[in-house]
Specification:
The structure is a single chain. By secondary structure, the chain is α/β, with parallel strands linked by helices. The protein has a domain of 59 residues. The chain contains three helices and three strands; from the N terminus they run H-E-H-E-H-E. A three-stranded parallel β-sheet has the order 1-2-3, covered by helices on one side. The termini are far apart.
Length: 98
């Protein structure tokens, strides 16, 4: 039990800061995706989407929602957010494992 703090001290001491982040190739497409839990209020998701939309790197913003409400669809249409519902997708909801 007394050696446990030593492990963390050695780990932190040996860690290094990366020299530079790798750049993304120019023709790459970037997507930011957020999922919505069935019981999650849309106000929480809307705040997350707003934060994603303000990012200055070019990207597509996606919401993964099984059953998007009319409010959700209106918001996403108005703000250019794509919706990815898996409801009714036979290729996703399989009766057997692939």
């Amino acid at each position: 039990l007394t050696l446990m703090p030593m492990y963390f001290l050695l780990t932190v001491h040996a860690s290094r800061k990366p020299s530079k982040l790798a750049s993304i190739p120019k023709r790459s497409r970037v997507a930011m995706v957020v999922t919505k839990a069935p019981s999650e209020p849309f106000a929480v998701v809307a705040r997350t989407l707003e934060a994603m939309l303000t990012q200055d790197y070019p990207h597509d913003t996606w919401l993964a929602d099984e059953y998007p409400s009319e409010e959700t669809v209106r918001y996403c249409d108005a703000h250019g957010v794509f919706i990815s519902p898996r409801r009714g997708r036979e290729d996703y909801h399989r009766k057997t494992w692939p």
